[in-house]
């Protein structure tokens, strides 16, 4: 059932002993939203914990909080569009048990008993901010750090098209409540690990251009992972690089998997549709960011991908 | 004389035939502030032009407006802390002729007849926004684009420590007035020229680490400029890279000048003071971003710089 935010607040006020679940491959928004909400519920005198499918990545450890002991009664999902995104260990237990889902993905599958979805919100954390205000909780600097992290990371630090005037106004309020915005942004956007920096250098060294510079291709091999000491978890930043080159409409990053096949991340500028390109190859995604698996050797995969892209530009 | 913003607005309402001057090596803030103010004065039925010391760099050409013909009566400086920053061709004519200066640098030398300085403003454009509201001008999408560009570029897209809640609130208003924020941010932050991308790759290839990884050094030679087709105007982005590596406290970029000597850009994380390092070598700047000229060959310059840095970390 779809509900409004006031009903979501009433529901939270009535219930207690909350488990808040976040999505797999946790990012700043799911963690910031989940932990921010957890702190707000605790401030109301309730018991609440956040459950992640895997360990919190090192860069987000500053958000981490101590768990509480209690018997779970109420399950809340944050920033999870579908049960398939929960991660296996969480999905096994909670797939059919979510009481309330709070999300900003237009593609949300309404898998919970009660669902609040606002696809105009740049981040789930923007929704949680509004909810916490409705709950009448005084936002602490720690909560503000969580919610600011969610908004900042999901908008590329207020850079993307999902940012609205409301996003900026929430950021202003969170700074007033004590969010250490500049320090968070240094951690999120101005810090590269040595291993990532090396992988990025190797990736740039091999960048190739096709179709009169309208397509840029980066290929990351297992050898590059070995040489840099980096791994697939650090690839996300690299996918954005090739599209940034002037004149490039389609930026592609192919990365070699353990079995020697390749996975492609496709980033486009309008009017080229990344999801259409990837759909042709059995994948999918958003209009400007999509992905697909490619069969065959590096040469075969590259040719298939470039031929497909050629039909779109 | 220091004045308040209301007096600045009254002054502009009384006067006409404005020349607005911007600082040398024009950036998004001086251009966005100057052109935004110019458009606002024209909207009041006044004549106004913006004068730059040099051509507007290609990435900022979307801000450009047509000049008007009139006899200059009033001179306004925007985002200029001192006459030495005007650029020679502007300084020659206007050094002692500025009627009103509008600026956000705490270091402003109060060189004009009337001076309004608000060092809490993240960008001069944040001041111009407040001023235009005081003038009672309805902000058009074109004006909003100018002022958003100023704020976005001077804050690294809301990333830096100069951002305050007021900065976010002004950004929200400018989006409501029609600023095409996402498109501006793609141009400003998500676009690299092919020549810059090549220079960046060459620079990264040569990055070296010293003092247990606490200092990273990038050296850009004339050969790299030749190989990439890039030039000194594109170096600013590279200066930021070395400090982004995890564990690095001092990131240094040395670039070779036409005479074979080197100029150093030093970027630090607290508590290391970049301006103190550069002052020791005859240069200066801000606590986290400073610069200096180095004598001698590449080897001599590198040794001198690293020895000096060694005393600070």
Outline of this structure?
The structure is a homodimer of 313-residue chains. Chain A contains twelve helices and eleven strands.
CATH superfamily of the largest domain in chain A: inorganic pyrophosphatase (n-terminal core)
* Distance separating the two termini of chain A: 42 Å
Strand content of chain A: 15-25%
Determine the structural class of chain A based on helices, strands and strand pairing.
alpha/beta
| Name of the CATH architecture of the largest domain in chain A | Alpha-Beta Complex
Describe the structure.
- The structure is a homodimer of 313-residue chains.
- Chain A has twelve helices and eleven strands.
- A six-stranded mixed sheet of chain A has the order 6-7-8-9-11-10, with helices on both faces. In chain A, strands 2-1-3-4-5 form a five-stranded parallel sheet, with helices on one face.
- Chain A folds into two domains: 185 residues, inorganic pyrophosphatase (n-terminal core) (Alpha-Beta Complex); 119 residues, Diaminopimelate Epimerase, Chain A, domain 1.
- The first copy, chain A, is an alpha/beta fold and 313 residues long.
- In chain A, helix 1 crosses helix 4 and helix 5 crosses helix 7.
- Chain A starts with a helix and ends with a helix.
- Chains A and B meet through helix 6, helix 7 and helix 8 of A and helix 6, helix 7 and helix 8 of B.
């Amino acid at each position: 059932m779809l509900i409004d935010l006031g009903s979501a607040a009433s529901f939270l006020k009535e219930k207690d002993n909350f488990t808040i679940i976040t999505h797999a491959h946790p990012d700043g928004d799911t963690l910031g939203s989940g932990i921010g909400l957890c702190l707000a519920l605790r401030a109301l005198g309730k018991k609440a914990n956040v459950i992640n499918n895997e360990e919190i990545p090192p860069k987000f450890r500053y958000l981490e909080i101590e768990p509480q002991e209690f018997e779970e009664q109420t399950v809340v999902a944050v920033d999870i569009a579908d049960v398939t995104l929960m991660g296996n260990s969480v999905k096994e237990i909670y797939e059919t048990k979510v009481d309330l889902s709070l999300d900003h993905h237009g593609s949300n599958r309404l898998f919970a008993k009660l669902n609040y979805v606002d696809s105009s919100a740049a981040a789930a954390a923007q929704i949680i901010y509004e909810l916490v205000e409705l709950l009448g909780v005084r936002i602490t600097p720690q909560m503000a750090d969580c919610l600011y992290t969610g908004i900042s990371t999901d908008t590329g630090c207020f850079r993307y098209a999902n940012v609205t005037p409301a996003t900026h106004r929430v950021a202003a309020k969170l700074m007033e409540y004590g969010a250490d915005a500049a320090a968070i942004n240094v951690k999120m956007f101005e810090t590269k690990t040595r291993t990532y920096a090396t992988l990025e250098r190797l990736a740039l060294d091999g960048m190739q251009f096709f179709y009169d510079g309208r397509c840029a291709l980066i290929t990351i091999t297992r050898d590059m992972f070995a040489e840099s000491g980096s791994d697939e978890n650090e690839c996300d930043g690299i996918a954005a690089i090739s599209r940034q080159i002037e004149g490039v409409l389609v930026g592609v990053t192919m990365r070699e998997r353990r079995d020697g096949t390749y996975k492609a991340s496709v980033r486009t500028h309008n009017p080229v549709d990344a999801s259409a390109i990837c759909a042709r190859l059995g994948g999918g995604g958003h209009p400007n960011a999509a992905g697909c698996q490619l069969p065959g050797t590096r040469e075969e995969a590259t040719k298939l991908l470039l031929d497909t892209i050629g039909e779109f530009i």
